Amino acid sequence: ENTLYVFTADVINLIKSGTANHTDPNVSFLIDDVVQYSTGIIPKTEQWQNYGFTFTTEPGQTSVVLSLRNNAPGGIGNDLAIDNIEFRPCGPEALILPYEIENICEDGSPIDLDATVVGDQYPDPAFQWQQSFDEGETWVDIPGATGPIFTHTDLASGVYYYRYLLANSPGNLSNSKCRVNSNVKVVNVVPKFWESSDTLCEGLPYVINDQIINQSGVYVDSLISSLGCDSIVTLNLVFVPDSQIEAEVTTQDPECGLTANGSLLIENVANGVPPLTYLFNGGNLGGLTFYENLMAGQYTLTIEDRYGCVFEETYTINDPPAFIVDAGNDIFVELGELASISPTNNFPVDTFFWLPDPLNCNPPCWDLNWAPKESVDLLLTAVSDKGCIAVDSVHVGVIRNRNVYIPNVFSPNSDGINDAFTIFGAVPNVQRVSSFRIFDRWGNLVFEQKDFLPNDESAGWDGRVNGTFVPNGVYIYVAEVLFFDDEVKEYSGDVMLAR
Questions:
Q1: DSSP helix/strand/coil, 271
Q2: Cα–Cα separations (whole angstroms), residue 247 to 65, 266, 275
Q3: What is the average pLDDT across 450-476?
Q4: H helix or E strand, kind and range, residue 473
Q5: Interatomic CA distance for residues 229 and 206, integer angstroms
Q6: What secondary structure does DSSP assign to 29-66, as a single string?
Q7: What percent of the chain has pLDDT over 70?
Q8: Rounded CA separation 145/281 (Å)
Q9: Cα dihedral value 460, 465, 471, 476, nearest 10
Q10: What is the rounded CA–CA span in Å between residue 197 and residue 233?
Q11: CA-CA distance, 290 to 263, in Å (whole number)?
């Protein structure tokens, strides 16, 4: 009765955003069949929206009927979902400060727990302190603890759990819908007397209050705990002989240099009192006995039993010799000459390829012999029979000399010497003569030949025009020459005809 409540729900319009001609839902919140709040049209946002309101019950009112109603008419659309319906008292915030565990000594003094109420919703609040004996699972009222302060007086060692209920009147404290709960406050009573037993491997030190103990026995000492309480500690300490842990360890080096596929295998572990702890390079990996994906390096294995007896060894995983392919030194050839590459390798090769591949071999060619038309950088990538990769490159430089010779005089007198005028050149540097024309001093064409091989005098000019010898003198020539690299160069000049 006479309590402020909040009534809320999450609602979503299930129709996809942007869909036209669909009815949108409109939800009303009812108290005792009377509409108290309406959402209005719920838009198609594809997002959950929270709707709700607060209301106060009347004096003497002990129950309400809550309802949700969709007011939109039937038809296309009008699809919605409702979740997280909430009905709770909208009271002040009930706190026990500070939040941290309160630690007191067994021979200390009682302490007060103060109720802090944040908010003025309850002008005259009612309190009921409670205690839990199962770590907060269930709660029971503390008789007579109905004020804003509760005094913890039980100094027997243990952990105590407290909270309080808060309502606007004592009558509402018994109704879970009409009250608010505080946070849980934990009180820890630190015991004065401690007894501890421990068993260690011989040779390990046990330190208590700056005293190093290395013999079995019962030890009693007075200490100040970290919480400031006087403590009397009785220690039953036993040292056992070293269990002499043994293990067979096998290492596997990586198959390729600078790769992480080495491994270490632990087998036939003997002696030691279980459970055994495996430490690999200082890291605790539980009971793992096979370590893989290891780079070359040193690795320390530690096996420790429950009493601290230790097996520890350092193992070396080595990098194997690197897989190497050598494509040879850079080479330089004249245009049209053969370039030869014969790579070498130190381990068997499984697969390889050239980029670019000048011969387009299928399967790829290991040795290359070809006449390059231009300079090129070749990259050889090889994979060994163990899957290791090696790469090398070689530069092939083409010297683009144009090896063409054109005489400046000829004597077509049938003596077998220089009887014809033609184009000479080194083959295959020179591929063909595309065009060869000769003119007299007045610009008249006296000879023309196309598409013939160099060094062929029969394709040249014999000093005649239409079967008749022309006079001695100077004649002009123009020639277009096709070279091995598919370039065409034009040559021109004059030649002396002398019989």
A1: coil
A2: 73, 7, 15
A3: 96
A4: strand 473-483
A5: 23
A6: EEETTEEEEEEEE----SS-EEEEEEEEPPTT-----E
A7: 100
A8: 58
A9: -50
A10: 11
A11: 7
How far is 165 from 228, CA to CA, in rounded Å?
33
| Residue at 13: amino acid letter | N
Confidence (pLDDT) at 1: 65
Q: 344, 408 in Cβ contact below 8 A?
A: no
* Tokens of residue 147, six digits: 């004020």
Per residue in 64-92, pLDDT tens? Answer: 999 999 998 877 888 899 999 988 777 78
Model confidence over 230-279: pLDDT tens digits?
Answer: 888 888 999 999 999 999 999 999 999 888 989 999 999 999 999 999 99
Structure confidence at residue 171 (pLDDT): 85
Q: Where are the alpha helices (DSSP H) in 313-454?
A: none
Kindly calculate the radius of gyration of the chain based on its CA atoms and give it in whole angstroms: 51
Backbone angles phi, psi at 172, to 5 degrees: -85, -10
> Cα(245)–Cα(272) distance, rounded to whole angstroms?
5
Omega of the bond leading into 123 within 30 degrees of 0 (cis): no
Q: What is the DSSP string of 361-385?
A: -SSPPSSEEE--SS-EEEEEEEEET
Q: Could you give the CA distance from residue 114 to residue 127 in angstroms, rounded to a whole number?
A: 11
pTM above 0.90, yes or no: no
**Cα–Cα dist 480/168, whole Å:** 112
Q: Single out the residue of 378, 373, 286 nearest to residue 329, CA to CA.
A: 378
Q: Strands 185-190 and 158-167, how do they pair? A: antiparallel
Domains and CATH numbers, the chain: 4-89 (no CATH), 93-190 (2.60.40.10), 193-240 (no CATH), 246-317 (2.60.40), 325-399 (2.60.40.10), 404-497 (2.60.40)
- Closest by alpha carbon to 183, among 158, 165, 170, 160? 165
Return the closest-CA partner of residue 437 out of 494, 371, 379.
494
Cis omega (within 30 of 0) on the bond before 320? no
Q: Give the contacts of 226 (CB within 8 A, at least 6 positions apart).
A: none
* DSSP conformation class of 23: B
Beta-strand pair 217-224/230-240:
antiparallel
Cβ distance 149 to 113 under 8 Å?
yes
